[in-house]
Structures are given as structure tokens and as C-alpha cells.
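Bumping with the actual sequence this time:
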Amino acid sequence: MTDDNPRQLSLFASPYLRFIVTLLVVLGCLLLNPTHSAQATSSLTTVYEQRTIHSSNGIGKYYMGREIAQVMGHTGAGWLERPSREAEEQPSKIVSVLNLKPDDVVADIGAGTGYLSFRVAPLLTKGKVLAVDIQPEMLEIIEFFKQEKHISNVEPILASMTNPNLPDASVDLAVMVDAYHELEYPQEVMQGIVKALKPGGKVVLVEYRGENPFIMIKRLHKMTQKQVRQEMQAVGLVWRETKNLLPQQHLMVFEKQV
């Protein structure tokens, strides 16, 4: 792999700094509302584990035995839009198997530069794409591409680390491409996505295959199918199928229980 691959290089802030900031936020919440904050902190403690010794590519926070990976910042936007991406990952195949209907509402979670959003949007002649990201800089790039590509049915949504900020029962399909493993609060975000899905709505997760040591992506930026299914089951999603049509990634389909 080349050196411009953010998932190959350590281009992220110190995990210790992140830990200190998180600690300060928690302390602030305790001062403002000690009873509520104590309950929330206790709840999070039962879901997540923080370890001092951990991978340099992770944040030291573990969920269901998996260390959460460092987030790829907006400085990695060029890698998302690299000309070789189609040849390497064949993302057009993702779009081809989504079985989209013209009036669907699709949430692209961790949309980044909107690489997938702008490939899906033209198929939704009566629908739209909600391009969700926690980085305002990425949403600015999406706005730029909206104007450049003259595509109006892509709506940027600024999410928080714990909430995708989507209306309840508004989404037919949520898609995450190489993004889920970087969610700092995966359970809370997925619970928000499940609430946003319409009855029978689906979630499609694309992740580099963690079972394959020969896929040259950092270990924390890959996931095994077993781990993904375990984490989706925890929020009430039912696994429907896994498509192995991509050269390096799983494409896993889950459905909201009616």
C-alpha cells in the first residue's frame, strides 16, 4: 500500500489526549447533574472498557472485546477520492446490490466526502441521500460536490459521536462503508440508526475482512464477520446475508425487526 493511505499510517491525535478530554467532559457533566451523570457513566461502564495499554492505532476503548480504531480525519479526504479506488475496492458493486427503489431514503453513515452518496443519489429520482458525518469539514466537501455535480438530493447531516441525528422511522436503508469500526460510541449510534429505520428497514455494513491477514489494512480497521454480527445483534438487528462480491471487504446485510 502507498503512504497516502490513512488506514495504514498513524496520522491521528494522541489517545491520551482524547482520554483526558473525555474525562474532563464527564467531570463537567457530573458537576451539572450528578444524579443523571452517575447513571449514564455507570451505563457506559457496563458497555465499554477503557485500557491504558492498547494499540497505537486505537483509542484504548473496547466494545464487546474489540478495540475501537482511530477516526480517519478530514485530512484523509484525498484518499477517499483517489482515482484508484474503483480498481482496488470496486465500490460500484456496492451500489449495484442495494436494490434501491426510486423513492427510497438512504442514510450514508460516515459519508466522508460523499463518495458513495453521489453514486447512489441519481438512482433515487423521488428519494434522497442523508449524508451523515461528525466532521463539519467533510460536510463542507459534500456541499462543494453538490454544486459541482449539480446533484440536489444529497442532504448533509451533522451527527454527534453518540447520535446520527436522523428522524425516527425515516430511513429505508442505512449504509456504512469502512466506517463502523471507527465509531467511538458504536452501541449508541446503532441504536439511533435502528430508531431511524422504517419497519423492515435494512443496514448494510462494508468492512475489510478481519479474517484475512493478507489484506494489507491495519488490524483495527478490519472486522471479522463474527464480530460484526455479534455487535449488530446487540442492538436488535437481524443478519440476513453476507455478500462476498468485493475483493477485500465483507458486505453484510441486516434488517430491523418489525
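The C-alpha cells above came from a reply further down the thread. The longest strand covers residues 197-209.
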